[in-house]
Amino acid sequence: MNDAKVMQLFQMFAMIPDAEPWRDLAEAEMDAVKAELRDGADDSDNRLAFYTAARANLQYRRTVAQNTPVYAGTVPQDAECSLAERLVRAYREECAPLLRDDAVTFLRTGGCT
């Protein structure tokens, strides 16, 4: 996975002037996405950079929302977190062929009642 591309996309998604202070967060998401990869998946696929940056953006938004006080007349950060969650879901769908499917499948085999 291209670290520089992930950082560039994260900076764009988060709309921050400098993503470097958030590098640890982005690297944690890179590790998490690498752990989700199917065996034999191409980890240099550009879609993974978008998915990883979207995940980092969601964590960034949650951190900022948690640390932002809400006063009467101010807008809570819920809308930004909701948009970030939709972005993660959209990029996860794009990366689905590269990622393990952790959905539970129930099968019935012969002889079981």
Question: How is this fold's topology laid out?
Answer:
Blueprint: H1 3-14, H2 23-36, H3 46-66, H4 78-95
Could you characterize the architecture of this molecule?
With 113 residues, the protein is mainly α. The chain has one domain (3-98). Helix content is 58%, strand content 0%. It contains four helices and no strands. It has helices at 3-14, 23-36, 46-66, 78-95. α1 crosses α2. The model has no long low-confidence stretch (mean pLDDT 87).
Q: In brief, what are we looking at here?
A:
With 113 residues, the chain is an all-alpha fold.
What characteristics describe this protein?
113 residues, 4 helices, globular, 58% helix, mainly alpha, 0% strand, single chain
Low-confidence stretches: none
Helix content: 55-70%
Distance between the termini: 47 Å
Large-scale geometry: globular
The largest sheet is: none
> Radius of gyration from the CA trace?
18 Å
Overall tally of structural domains? 1
Q: SS-based structural class?
A: mainly alpha
The count of helical stretches stands at: 4
Strand proportion, as a percent range, falls in under 5%
Succession of helices and strands: HHHH
Tell me how many strands there are.
0
Provide the residue-averaged pLDDT.
87
